[in-house]
Amino acid sequence: MKKIRQILMLLTCIAVVMAAALQRDGNIWGYAFDNVEQSTQKEALVSDTMTVLDGGITRINTAYLARDVKGYGGQTPLYVYVKEGRIQRIEAQKNNETPEFFAEAATLLKAWNGKTLEEAVAQKVDAVSGATLSSNGIIGNVKRGIAYAAKNASAPSLIEQMNLSPKLIVGLLVVLMAAILPLFLKNKTYRTVQLILNVIVLGFWSGTFLSWSLFVNFMSNGVSIWSAIIPIIMLIVAFIYPLFGKKNYYCTHICPCGSLQDLAAKAKSRKWRMNNQLVKWLNRFRKGLFVLLMFLMLSGVWTAWMDYEVFAAFIFQAASAVVLILGCVVVALSFFVPRPYCRFVCPTGTLFKLSEGRW
Fold this sequence. Notes:
Structural class: alpha+beta
Strand content: 5-15%
Oligomer: single chain
Mean pLDDT: 88
Shape: globular
Largest sheet: 4 strands, antiparallel
Number of helices: 17
Radius of gyration: 22 Å
Order of helices and strands: HEEHEEHEEHHHHHHHHHHHHHH
């Protein structure tokens, strides 16, 4: 009976994320809610794939060519301008990426300028640190556009889709260590090392973590498995592990934010003493905040709150001042209060609790 209740709660959480995706974007898993509108949009995109402009310039629109290539917030379509077999420039089209993070990734757009199509096909471009998914979306779109322009519009190979950069390989190794080793290894030294790796590799280097923004983006636009393999493993740990008795596993062993708070707590042995009444009040605050945010999101009043979760502070190059200040406050409090954000604020953590049948 307990297992059935847990599964029902997990399905309820999925339904809430689905409703949020419909409210914000009108899409579920990349398909428009209005099939007629979707069909019309598809026809328009196909017809606009290649356009010959004045001056002998050919414009390639990757919106249809790379419809299965996803960034952080969904598709990241581009215009690729080619003249006499050489790339003139690449422009971004409208997308649902977080503007600050996409601005960082968009610095890649100049990397192919002046290259011949053959040179561009062979060129290796690495993702921008802290904006990996958006970067992969841009790189994937450029590859499809170049392939089409070169009359070789075949789908990329599995290796090309995986984009095996050092960042992806190291990040995948770290997340697999965190997902597997604590199941068998109980060692304080190892745990400290894992916490450090979570913060440095998954947090600051890769900028990979679970958040409401990620959930809604994936639900709305679908996901490219290989480019998002690390967050997919995180999702499995967060939502599937609890079905087998491993509750709170992601928050305890993988989450970069939780890991940073734990490291701060290790640096100071004396903590503030909090009476039971204060802890109860703070728990009520967390629950009340969650209910308020769900209302704002599902009613469509304010969905942008998802961009202000503290996790975004790891991508400090593009994070807003509000998020950076919040991140600093959380770290400072963590020296005196164990996991203050996780215990008394985190909307993502509250969703995990609900999916596990807790509150």
